[in-house]
Amino acid sequence: MTSVDLSEFDVPGRGRGILDVIRWRYLLRLLVRKGTATRYRNSVLGWTWSYVKPGIQFLMYFLVVGYIFNGNRGIANFPIYLFAGLVAVNFFNEAFGNATTAIVDNRALVKKIYLPRELFPISAIIVAFVHFLPQLAILLVVSLLYGWVPSFAGIGAMLLGILLVAALALGLGIFFAGINVRYRDAQNFVEIIRMVSTWASPVLYAWTLVQEKASGWILHLYMSNPVTVAVELFHWSFWEPTVSPDAELQPHGFPPHFSLYLTAALVICALVLIIGQLTFRRFERSFAQDL
Length: 291
Fold this sequence. Notes:
291 residues; 14 helices; membrane; cell inner membrane; transmembrane helix; transport; ABC2_TM
């Protein structure tokens, strides 16, 4: 009886998880192209909405929080401070939301053919990043008008902030994407997290206000939030260079123990990615049946 070498064959329905993205990158490019092409299909304004929607959101927060509630008090160049934080949080919210619904939105492909299911949430993250770029471009232009001077350290801080947001959104996204196929309640939990994320990070206020109201483990937990760390990296990259060093308005520089908070945020992102991948792998066995 002759034996057949099966080493070059894949076991149907199983793969190496996120690592398969490298092998199937041509499919990833197709999914990203599809996501970017269909977002504003049959829209008159098209990609202009990528500028209009964050602009209106910024304007509402700026007027309501900044002037009606005096949220700009004590923060120099409050428009840059506010928009830098909003850009980071908006990227997280869109990436997280898109990744959560990626499997359900592509049910036709999931039920008909096999391909690594992780490609769908990962492509959703990349599509969110593509739509994040116009907001980043606006932030760059406005920062330049306020006297911002780019530096290698500032650009590095920005890239690190983007990496943190993308990693956290991917980890949470694949976790809830797997659960959402069987239990659609997961999408409601995601909406709650997205709603809270804007207020759970120093976007509309300074972190010093949290320090005044909370201390000890509560403050450490708040500052270890990867989104909070990413927001502060964006503030340091774009807002901090526009503020005079001898200005009385606070805050200046990174919060105390920021290196520890950054390390904690990186560890949290790694753990969330691992837990998300394991959960996704467990639920993906029945994706076709549940859909």
